[in-house]
Amino acid sequence: MVDVLSQNEIDALLAALSSGEMDAEELKKEETQKKIRTYDFKRAVRFSKDHIRSLTRIHENFARYLTTYFSAQLRTFVQINVVQVEQLPYDEFIRSIPKMTVLNIFEAEPLEGRMVLEVHPNVAYAMLDRLLGGQGTAPSKINALTEIETTVMERIFSRAFESLQEAWKTVIDISPRMEALETNPQFMQIVSPNETIALISLSTKIGETTGMINLCIPHVVIEPIMPRLSVHHWFVSQKKSRAPGEQEMLEQRVNRAKLNIVAELGQSSVTIHEFLGLSVGDVISLDRSLDEGLHIKVGDKLKFIGSPGSVKDRLAVQIDEIVSEGVEEENDE
Question: Which of 6, 15, 24, 87 has a CA 20 to 30 Å removed from the CA of 181?
Fold first, then answer.
């Protein structure tokens, strides 16, 4: 990040140059010298900015699907949003999460390797409390999960992986499957400590309870499909997504679609009293003369102008003019 000088620092620098305390030539030499940046091999950059943007787009959809899913399951207000997508060593991720948390370890075939969905205890216990008939509040003290609570957690999060499957469909068809549920991060070692991971952080609010849900995806797991996370691949795949013959099939279905066609002689307005007094032989004047032609509507849109007639003793309409724009006719009220 470029350092920005304050106005006081600029004034002090100009005063030093004018008084001779600093030499402008020496400053230029320092500027032209090569700058050395330290590189931390433990924080190797494996994901480009393009990859991070793609992961952000995918998991913004994942957050929307999760919001819908948990709202239906918990029957309360749920809001989930992507806060950050970053890359860091796996060991740093383990040290950043609570010692007692809910870790959903899962696989996603055809990808090889394991991933983790970490749910903060506040969020997990609020879900559990809501599912068991409570108000959805987090307990003041976090205890170990009982067998019944563990089973309930496994069921709700196993189905939550369907949202992840749906979000990744634009890149690859995966089949996430829950492998284990842990509460102690020290017992979970899915990759080596120095392995780079993509960490997707989701801010979660359930009722009045807030917390984080973190999705940990090791680089080694999605390395085979990294080229698919580029913007270029997304544009190419969208162009090729239409299967051969799909357009012809679509045209056939459109051609078989049924629409209502109505030929209007005209319109008229009468009062209820006049309507009740109508009898055989009465004449109702319309707002359109016969010379103007019939308005032929397809659905609610005016499409043709025609003339009335008969064919084989049946009423018929002859199309005289095509209204290409299909303007929607305004009804007089």
Answer: 87
